[in-house]
Design goal:
The chain is built from two helices and twelve strands. With 285 residues, it is an alpha+beta fold. It has two domains: 51 residues; 168 residues, Rod shape-determining protein MreC, domain 1 (Thrombin, subunit H, Beta Barrel). A six-stranded antiparallel beta barrel has the order 1-2-5-4-3-12. β6 and β7 form a beta hairpin. The chain is rod-shaped and about 165 Å long. 21% of the residues are buried.
Length: 285
């Protein structure tokens, strides 16, 4: 007759099984430690080889980086040069503006005694025909500019308006060989006529008596005769007086007070008639 509960393996068998499993685990763990040591040794041995194998890649990366750095450096140098050039241009512009402002102050200062209306204009163009001393200014009939209007710069008389359009006007310079302006010697009040020579910055005075009191260095100013140019504005300085005994009259050459070749800003005048009357009375006296 079978028992209800049968016996399992004996205790000796169980103990033997536990011992075997423990030994297997110990052997396996020891092998793992040996494997790790071997792997570490192999890794140490092959690491220089790995570094050597990586050298080409490192060199390529370094070359690329060096080329990129040089390209960036060249670009930065170009940008710095461009900025330097820009700053130089700005500096030149500032110098030009300072010079223009000084010229404007000089222009305004020269008009303190003039009671009539005045306006500053800019020379836009110079006539390319050397036989005609004409310039174009940026003020026209809409600004009240009229034919015959006197035009000056900061140092003296420049010319007069000969034609106008809505926005611009043409000015005939006093050096044009068709132009003449009544003047007087500042030193003694002797009145003369100064004519354009056709040459830059030069006027001629012709057909005056040998006995006329005129000499090199005399300053010529507007006399007010003709009721066109206000009285007393500088016109020219006598350079040379020619007295030829074989000719009935003496002559002289004068250098214009205004620098006609360099002037950029000019003054338009609207003289008051009372000033002309005063000038006429002074000349009659």
């Amino acid at each position: 007759m079978k028992t209800i509960f049968s016996r399992g393996p004996s205790q000796h068998i169980r103990l033997a099984l536990v011992v075997v499993i423990s030994i297997v685990l110990m052997i396996s763990d020891h092998q793992k430690q040996q494997t790790s040591s071997i792997r570490a040794l192999i890794s140490t041995l092959i690491s220089p080889l790995e570094y050597l194998a990586a050298i080409p890649t490192i060199l390529v990366d370094w070359a690329d980086s060096s080329m990129a750095s040089r390209s960036d450096l060249n670009l930065e140098i170009k940008e710095l040069r461009d900025e330097q050039m820009f700053l130089k241009v700005q500096a030149q512009k500032m110098i030009s503006l300072e010079s223009e402002n000084a010229h404007l102050r000089q222009l305004l200062g020269s008009l303190k005694r003039e009671k009539g209306q005045r306006r500053i204009a800019e020379i836009m163009n110079v006539n390319s025909d050397p036989s005609q001393h004409l310039v174009t200014i940026n003020k026209g009939s809409q600004n009240g500019v009229y034919t015959g209007q006197p035009v000056l710069d900061a140092t003296g008389v420049l010319g007069q308006v000969v034609s106008t359009s809505l926005l611009t006007s043409k000015v005939l310079l006093i050096t044009d060989n068709t132009h003449a302006i009544p003047v007087k010697i500042l030193r003694n009040g002797v009145r003369l006529i100064a004519k354009g020579s056709g040459l830059a910055n030069q006027l001629l005075l012709e057909q005056f008596p040998h006995t006329t009191d005129i000499q090199s260095g005399d300053i010529l100013v507007t006399s007010g005769l003709g009721m066109r140019f206000p009285v007393g504005f500088p016109v020219a300085v006598i350079d040379l007086v020619i007295r030829d005994p074989g000719k009935p009259f003496a002559s002289a050459a004068a250098r214009t007070s205004a620098d006609l070749l360099r002037t950029g800003l000019v003054i338009l005048l609207w003289p008051n008639f009372p000033d002309y009357k005063e000038a006429g009375d002074d000349n009659n006296n």
